[in-house]
Amino acid sequence: MDTGEVSIQRYVGVDDVGVVINPMIVDGMVHGGVTQGIGQALQEEAIYDDEGQLLTGSMMDYAVPMAEVLPSFETDRTVTPSPVNPLGIKGAGEAGTIAASPAVVNAVMDALAPFGVKHIDMPLKPEKVWRAIRSSR
Fold this sequence. Notes:
Oligomer: single chain
CATH architecture: 2-Layer Sandwich
CATH superfamily: Aldehyde oxidase/xanthine dehydrogenase, molybdopterin binding domain
Number of strands: 2
Shape: globular
């Protein structure tokens, strides 16, 4: 509350990736997708100046999540074979990216509801969260 920094305590996701041929690769794809989605929700932002020059054009300027800020992911999967290919496989890497951003943003909004905060545009950087808490009082 004093800094606006969001700390994710737990992330649980269940995905249907069809028939799994190599579980370790699928788990890695899901974990990578979740990390990307969390980064989008909390950190990643393309910032331009008034003339349209990209200011976050390198990895020095464009924040991506580090392992130390991520929780251990609790993942599982269901299996519904795809009917459109003989192996019954589906994509796996996109699942985390699609679900993680709204899941994290909704969790933050739930946490901020007692303060009267109803909306913050992504990314939910600490300053934005802090300002939203302060302005709602």
